[in-house]
Design a protein that fits this description.
alpha/beta; Rossmann fold; 7-stranded parallel beta sheet; 6-stranded parallel beta sheet
């Protein structure tokens, strides 16, 4: 059996959705002839961890990390702050208005070049060299974001000559990033780093058709260097089939958090209008936001719930362990998804919703990657996040269906088979074999 070194900043017990793809690959690759060895950062550097998450790999090595430039800035700010002084740097997950000046744009672009996790690269490369010196590694697999992981992969590949596969879950510069990371200056600085880094990869893997075509047009490489491996759902996360919900209110549930442009404002406005017009009674509708949802880009969610007269109808529920959250999802009528401004991306939670066998209400552009996938898989409805009237119409239709009985979930069977994460692991094993035999 060959060994692949999987390098991922996010990995369980980190609760970030970015850790699930490498975790599932680590779990299922042995079935297809590849033994995974995972290299990641120590859990203490993650914002939140879930100790109940089962291990997905037999061998995981953790490293330390230097403070980020943002951490240094905040420390300096605390030491030197005075009334009216320099404003604090934003965190990578916070909502942030567009920079107001060239110097501020330049400062933020440099602070996050290519991202906050750049100080992990020396630690990842040093530990990677230790691993390759004591064990035979047949391939290196790096998955991003953060994009700094790809820099670590390029350096290790250059130092060891081991075949390297670069897996991009999101484009290097993408629509879902905060505004201060999408300025012209940030794109200008990141573009040459992106090209120079990925030019050395033996294989480039992307997760959507749109990303696949984008990177083929961006990089002057042969078609054999590019592969498409979607994200997927793991049937073992759902050992029991969902129980149809007969009677009771139409229940919509969202798992995750609100950041960048993901915003429940217009959904809540639509629900409030339905109730205000008498087209739905408060007891007929239930909307739950499960996770870190207290704050949204439009303000505190409790305030928006009150403004729209949805007390007792909508509620933000505190974070809970992942398996418990998935159980709550299976008990819902509809799974909520927010994916605005993501023309080339599909949120990983969509695949969990599909695995939970729940109809999806996707608040996103119909012509983006997410909207197209929902349409191909026939797994739900797509409405633009800001289309209050459109959302209200869909909610009204769902309420009518609920009155007649449990909502049906009748997706395309072939599409679901292709999205099984075990199928994705098999595809990755084929790409690993190609890269190491080449």
């Amino acid at each position: 059996m060959k060994t692949v070194l999987i390098i991922s900043y996010h990995f369980p017990p980190d609760t970030s959705v970015g850790g699930r793809r490498p975790a599932k690959f680590a779990r299922y690759l042995p079935s297809f002839g590849w033994r995974p060895l995972v290299l990641t950062v120590d859990p203490r550097y993650h914002e939140a961890t879930d100790k109940t998450h089962p291990p997905e790999a037999a061998s995981v090595e953790h490293t330390g990390m230097m403070p980020s430039f943002e951490d240094a800035y905040r420390w300096l700010k605390r030491r030197l702050s005075r009334p009216g002084g320099v404003p604090p740097a934003p965190s990578a997950g916070s909502a942030m208005p567009k920079p107001r000046s060239f110097l501020r744009s330049l400062g933020l672009a440099l602070m996050y070049l290519p991202d906050k996790q750049l100080p992990w690269v020396p630690f990842a490369v040093a530990r990677g060299l230790q691993i390759t010196s004591r064990r035979r590694i047949h391939a290196i697999f790096t998955t991003s974001p953060p994009n700094s992981v790809q820099i670590a992969g390029a350096l290790l590949h250059g130092l060891t000559g081991i075949p390297w596969l670069a897996d991009l879950r999101d484009p290097w510069t993408n629509e879902a990033q905060p505004d201060y990371q999408r300025t012209a200056i940030a794109r200008l600085l990141n573009a040459p780093i992106e090209r120079a880094t990925l030019a050395h990869a033996d294989r480039i893997i992307t997760v959507t058709d749109e990303m696949h075509h984008y990177y083929r047009s961006l990089l002057d490489r042969g078609i054999e260097h590019f592969h498409l491996i979607h994200n997927g759902y793991d049937p073992s996360d759902f050992p029991q089939p969902p129980v149809p919900q007969a009677g009771g209110p139409l229940t919509l549930r969202y798992l995750g958090s609100f950041y960048h442009s993901r915003d429940p404002r217009w959904l809540l406005e639509a629900a409030g209008q339905l109730i205000a017009r008498g087209e739905a009674a408060p007891g007929q509708l239930r909307i739950e936001f499960i996770g870190h949802c207290a704050q949204t880009p439009s303000g505190p969610i409790d305030q928006m719930i009150a403004t729209n007269g949805l007390q007792g109808v909508a509620e933000a529920i505190a974070w809970m362990p992942h398996r418990e959250a998935l159980g709550r999802m299976q008990a819902a009528d509809v799974a909520l998804l927010f994916a605005p401004r993501q023309k080339m991306q599909v949120p990983a939670k969509l695949f969990e919703y599909i695995g939970a066998r729940k109809p999806v209400l996707a608040l996103t552009e119909p012509d983006g990657s997410t909207g197209r996938l929902v349409g191909r898989a026939r797994c739900g409805r797509v409405v633009d996040q800001r289309d209050v009237d459109g959302i209200a119409r869909v909610l009204k239709e769902l309420l009518e269906q609920k009155r007649r009985g449990p909502l049906a979930f009748e997706p395309d069977g072939d599409a679901l088979a292709l999205l099984d994460v075990r199928r994705q692991a098999e595809l990755l094993a084929h790409v690993l074999n190609e890269a190491t035999y080449a």
